[in-house]
Amino acid sequence: MRSVALKTARRAGRRRSRRFTRRDLAVLVVLLGIPVLLDIVIIWGPTLASIGLSFTSWDGIGDIHWVGGENYRNLVDNYPPFWPAVRHNLLWLAFLGLIATPFGLLLAVLIDRGVRFSRFYQSTLYMPVVLSLAVVGFMAQLILGTDQGVVNTLLDNHENPIDWLGDSDLNIWMMMLAASWRHTGYVMILYLAGLKSVDPTLKEAAAIDGANARQTFFRVVFPTLRPVNVIVGVITVIESLRAFDIVYAVNKGRNGLELLSVLITDNVIGEASRIGFGSAIAVVLLAVSLGFIVTFLVQELRGARDR
């Protein structure tokens, strides 16, 4: 018995002391090293470079000159498009977060209840998600254009057409509606997947306790969707702050459609070539994005820990 125990201990020690072979290390390098390297080169490298360039003056060709916080002071005090762009970005966030996202949740709940032709509705509502925002912008031009737009044609406004895309009081709302058409389908699919994973016994227990459909959803079902809420919240913030394609496709982000992402493009690759100044705007957008996302994640993680 003692010899058997010794042999078993030796085998266990050999297993614990086993080292990775060259093949194992090669697999680890391919599966982990390459994605990490790409993440550093494509994401963190440009991010850190933008932060550094935001304190410089550089046109992309000549020498780089250190200017400290001058770019940020000019951005706040002497750059008129900045504050309208900030307001528009916050308006996009409020619109997508308070209107488009709840509407996507409503559609998911209705489809999850098994309405007739639910598969058809699900496919139709998800279809816009496969389109880029630039394509959605071109479609908005066809629908809302003043010359041969579908809406003005239906309203029979040939003599005095409504300038849906040129009027600065209207165009941003039209663009947010067009972007919500795409965003709603994405949110619907995420919540629909979450609703399918809810334990049916929870609903049955709530019904036995006398809860109606509304009480069951808000007090039983919705709290179990916390992981989905985190994902949807982060996606909504990202979608609202990076909205660039759709407004640039319509009128290059001008005349009431100014966004921070558009200002970055105009300064970095525009005729001015103020890369340092454009990098300062990019850092502001990064800080705003991280502020919303980190705050949201911290609140959700605290709620999950307190449960």
Automatic annotation (TrEMBL):
What is the name of the protein in this document? Answer: Carbohydrate ABC transporter permease
Q: Where is the ABC transmembrane type-1 domain?
A: 86-298
Membrane topology per the record? Multi-pass membrane protein
Organism, by scientific name, is Streptomyces aureus
Q: Does the keyword Protease apply?
A: no
The Swiss-Prot or TrEMBL record describes its family as follows:
Belongs to the binding-protein-dependent transport system permease family.
Say where the protein is mainly found: membrane
Q: Where in the cell is it found?
A: Cell membrane
Q: Tell me one Pfam family matched here.
A: BPD_transp_1
